[in-house]
Amino acid sequence: MERLLAMIGPEDDELRASLRVIKAFDEQVASGTALEDLVTLVTSLTGARVVLRDDLTNRILVDGGGDRVAVGAGEVGRVTKAAVDAGLRGRRAAELTLDGDGDGDVGPDAVLAVSVEHAGAQLGLAWAVRGERPWRVPDALALECLAKAAANRLLREHERSRLVPPDRVQALERLLTTTLTAAEAAIAARQAGLDPDRRYRVTVFRERPVAAASPEVVLGRALGAYAAAGVPAHGCLLGQTPVVVVDDSAAVVDALRAAPLGSWSGWWMDAGVAHPLTVADLAAGCLVARQSLALARVEGTGRVGVAEELGALRLLAAIPTTMLEDHPDVQALGRVVAERDGYINLAVLDVYCETGSLRKTATRLYLHHSSVDYRLKRIERMLGFPLATQAGRLRALISLQLARLLREGSAG
């Protein structure tokens, strides 16, 4: 690197600065520098205030080892919204223009931001607040180097903090995926840290929009919600689905509904809860929990579906998958989902079908009523029938529930 720097002429300032960025990061990463110090390094390289939003532990890192108090909640919300609106992904830095002054904060009007990702799943967001001079190529490069290093560090730190004996995880997975006799289930339950004589609920989680966060992040957030409520919980990943087994307690549902399902990190966490089961029936509980998630109603910006509260709606899960795949209304909703911000359109449709009011829908989802009106008109065109009548809203709501059952793989 020193030889390359010596070969570059004095007029190549940006190239020289870019090589210095790479050299500085190589040295710091190789020496195991703490994540907080890497944020400080980028601050020194860019001359800007640099912020790293860590979704795995729900914290904010800034120069000087600060926490979320050092950055206004309004700034976090505005940057997050701008990143979501711009579809910022792929570890490529881009300049974002921010709207308004969220929460009364006086914050920046524009930032240089980059998504912190691993395998296409978002783990956080990093941004720099511009000073007097315009952004240069080395500034973007420094922020992108931080995103790459942060993704690796966050995953390693997260795995260390959640270290669980492999045999315990394997026992829990066996309970959740295999039909066992009472004696076999009792043995597996003890290995998983469960009481064979107690009843448990299976809960499954999904982030919205899909693939907005890694399954590990969603599982960690779910376990954190239960821990905050004092509810004992045991979790694992089944494929890419976060699944948590919790004690049979009224506090379980209360914990989920009290949790901040509307996330400052730009995604929401939806949950499905099965009815209480013996340890021998936990595998069946996974299907019930997925059905509950698919049939859940919107509550604020999050959805929590509880099996006992669904009543006759669970009959929809008995409809054969082939019938759902071929139905025109379900196919039309698939096209709605495929659009940009399709998950917002589905939430608008869901709440509007419940309330029948444009303004109540806007209030519930924290959207402007003109935005809700525009989205509803577009959804109507794609569905091919009006939503102004009760019959039309009922048809749309049933189609919406069927489409979710198909997506969750929990149809008949």
Automatic annotation (TrEMBL):
<dbReference type="Pfam" id="PF13556">
    <property type="entry name" value="HTH_30"/>
</dbReference>
<protein>
    <submittedName>
        <fullName>PucR family transcriptional regulator</fullName>
    </submittedName>
</protein>
<dbReference type="InterPro" id="IPR051448">
    <property type="entry name" value="CdaR-like_regulators"/>
</dbReference>
<dbReference type="InterPro" id="IPR025736">
    <property type="entry name" value="PucR_C-HTH_dom"/>
</dbReference>
<feature type="domain" description="PucR C-terminal helix-turn-helix">
    <location>
        <begin position="346"/>
        <end position="401"/>
    </location>
</feature>
<dbReference type="InterPro" id="IPR042070">
    <property type="entry name" value="PucR_C-HTH_sf"/>
</dbReference>
